[in-house]
Amino acid sequence: MAREVLSPAAAALSQLASCNLKELHLKRADGSRILDSLHASCRAAKVIPASAPDATPKERYLAVFDAALAGGLGCWILDYVEVVCADRHLTSNDPLEAYLLDGGFVKAWAAACLARAEQAATSALTADMAFHSFQSSGQLQGQLAQTRVLVAVLRALDRIRAAAAGGAMAGVAGGAAGDRLSVKEELRQAVLLEQAFQVMDWCARQGLAEPRAAATGRFGSYPEWSRAVNARRARAAPRPLFLDSLLQSLSLSGAYPASSVQHMLHTLLLVVRDPEPAAWAAKLALLSYFLMDAGALEAAAPGGAGAAAGLGPGSAAGGGGEARVEAALEELRRTFRLSAADVGVWQCNYLLDCAVPDGPDGSEDPYLARACSLLPSCVTPTLPFAFIEALLALGRPGVALAVDRGQSGSEASGSGPAAAAAAGGAAGTSGRPCRTLAQATTLLDTRLRCGLMTEAFMLLRQHVSDLAARLHAAGGGGGAGGRAELEEHTRVLLGRLAEWAAVQDEAGAAAAIAAAGGSTATLAAAASTGWLNRLTELPLNATEESVLVSWLVAEAEAGRPAGDFLPLFFLQRGRVNEATAAWRRWDARQAALAAAGRRRSPVSDLVAAALDAAHCGGLPGPLRNVMVPAPAPGAEQPAAAGASGVPDLAPGQGAVGILAGLLDHMSPEQPLAVLPFHGAEPPPLVSRAVQLPAPHITAAQQAAAAAAPPGSSSQPQGHQQQQPFVGMPLQLPAAAPFRAPPPTPGPDAFGAGGYQQGRFFRPAPGGSGTLGVSGGGAGIGSGTGAGGAGGLLFSVGAGAVAAGPAPGGGVVGPAALAAARSTKRYKPNDWF
């Protein structure tokens, strides 16, 4: 088998790779070092250029390291750092050898290599043709590979130096040595150049290395492009463009647009010297924005093949251009190991800056439609809040709400007890960072524009809870300043909520006026189901209630329709006195407006009815049930009424109406018990009627009553035991009580010559009997269903009776009456 013959360059590199790294500095007997022979071999194989200096051992070391880097022996250099520089016991008394064994030599060599690489990158990006030749000659790939080796070497050296500094004494001399051997700055430069060459390589693979103006894609000239960017800023004001936010994060204000792709790359990669992850992401975001804005990705294809340019995302013929943009961004994501959400957000930066609200004719903006379809799938906890603001400003509150809910869900998915404790959250908080007042107002507006008033109120509660938790964690939640801040946030947010509800109600009232002539009933119905009425029905805490009352008072004093709900607010919470006072102040202004010819507020009838209901609800049940209907015109008065003179007072009103038999009830199933009036005085007693069973009279009592002489039962017996008080049905006389006191009821009062018989009241529902006196000594009432005795005003509920016949239906004699009567002399106003 024939042995493979290596080229001189490969043989020299193979000899270099197989040497002992710890013996490179050692001298032979002839005074030469092993490194000198390796240098000579590489120089003979033309691995080291003939023009490279080699007068000193240091220069020969540098040349050998350059040859290893150019020949692909980056691992050999990395091994030198790990084996030689990391060995603290490997040293020499020779200052030159000590320097070569120290990491300071590798640091100086890497710094020189980085300077040459940066010069090459600068030269490639400052001239029109240089980038193309730099890429086509293979220098771009070589520089990228070498820069990656330098990054690995410097990271290893930084790790070794950090470990050595940790084991040494932290003295002044040690600190100075650490500063001398620190490679932090060189490592930053190496990472920066690695990023630059990676981006340049990706652009070259997208066909962007050809010399051409960036404005030839979508715009006819550079000034036209600048005017388009300024028009976007004016259209979005006062909201800043996403472009301006990216420029500000990189300190590049006013550097957009660039005249060419090469100029943009030079500004991003070499002028902004910040390799940190946040700045790196901003650079890629701004680069993708620039390429989409210039139309370079649509017009260019891999290999430099051109295509139709200037096609927006919504154009019919733009399918191919849009597909090329998506393919290029997908390759960008894979090349730099990015998430799909990050690349989608960068794409939405450009789309939302170019978007305009939908037209009045319903036409949809293609940029806005594309952004709305893409953004909800790219939501992360770190998504800037500016996206919600932009969507709300562009008339897409539904998408903005979806983004906010998605962000809340993504935050909640990674939150737990440990995460909540790490974030300083407390019980009852949302677990997400506390929003500012402006952000909370925007989120509130988002929900209100979607018609979600209850969810907006819940957002207000959650924001105040998060703010209270943050203030408590900061130690200022219990002070006056913390309470004032909580009240201020509540006032702003609840005021915004109330203003929105008032505007919606005014729009609804205007629509009701336009429809069907705007009748008062229609307006009142609209007001009773309006947004402001729903807001007043929400369960408010003390701070929220105080804020809302203040807002309603201010609206009422300003004469705006929203102030009409102030009395209703108090009524809904059972505060009748405050509601009445507010109604008095408000109703006078409404009457003046009505007198001036303006339409009276539709809430007037609603509030008046609510006030009536509140006052009626405060009355006892029996009095609430009283109703005295007016007598029908031309109806004949009963003879008894004419004889007693009752109609001479006030027919059909008050006690006269009751005594005239006109008593009715609002609800037949509710109790009714009323005492007669004394003229204009209120009734002295209003209570529920006491439903008593018929008294049970034993046989012994019946025998004793029969044996007693007539009239003896009417006198009280001093030696008898006092009977306990028993509530009795209400007794009414046959005539007006203020004319003559009635006699004491007794057996002698019930007979043919006793009280006048007749219908005192109308039959109660469910019964056919009459209220009156049974004549001829017949006993207590002979009617059924609503029977009673002695002009009894009783419960008229569903056939209930106040008193009835004794069990068995027999006639009760005088003894039974004596057992049931009271020994007290009745006064005109005391009918018990």
From TrEMBL:
Q: Which GO terms describe its molecular function?
A: ubiquitin-protein transferase activity
Cellular component GO terms held in the UniProt record: cytoplasm; nucleus
In this protein, which residues make up the domain named ELYS-like? 241-552
GO biological process entries? negative regulation of DNA-templated transcription; protein ubiquitination
| Region spans: Disordered | 406-432, 700-722, 734-768
Keyword Calcium in record: no
Composition bias (Low complexity) maps to 406-424
Q: Which Pfam families match?
A: ELYS
Q: What is its main location?
A: nucleus
Q: Where in the cell is it found?
A: Nucleus
Q: Write out the entry's keywords from A to Z.
A: Nucleus
Q: Which InterPro entries match?
A: ELYS_dom, HOS1
In which domain of life is the source organism classified? Eukaryota
Name the chain's protein: ELYS-like domain-containing protein
Q: Which organism is it from?
A: Chlamydomonas reinhardtii (Chlamydomonas smithii)
